[in-house]
Amino acid sequence: MALLSPVLLLSAGGALFLVYLAQCLTSPLRKIPGPWYTVFTGLFLKWHAFQASRTKYIHQLHQKYGPVVRVAPDEVSYTSYDAVKEIYGSGGSGYDKTEFYDLFRVYGRRTMFTTLKREDHAKRKRIIADRYANSNVVKPAPLSGIQERSRRTEAQ
């Protein structure tokens, strides 16, 4: 019963709070402009998402704080074309994907889309890239095999 004493519970809660506070205040994102509360919580962003006003809310933050805004403890919003191109560009961002892509695995297996590491993705891409090369895409399909089988079927 001594394990559940109020003093011990308060001490443990206080220690957890101090660890959380230290993480918030030493985050690599701490110098990015944004409302003070985004250092500690993403609840405001979630509330606006729930109210279907997330885009408007983020736009207002950009008007107030500029092209780079911290919108949650672990989320930053950019408005510059160069940042969007770097993050979402089709040439690859140069960064590994996060575990978020595990949601899209097919029967527990990785696909080109769900491969997390850049090196693994590059290996897979090399194997199939020739099939999507422009020179192969514009080639007529090899019909000789199909035509031969059709003739044999007709002859029967």
Automatic annotation (TrEMBL):
The keyword Cell inner membrane does not apply. Keywords: Heme, Iron, Metal-binding. GO terms for molecular function: heme binding; iron ion binding; monooxygenase activity; oxidoreductase activity, acting on paired donors, with incorporation or reduction of molecular oxygen. InterPro entries: Cyt_P450_sf, Cytochrome_P450_monoxygenase. This is Cytochrome P450.
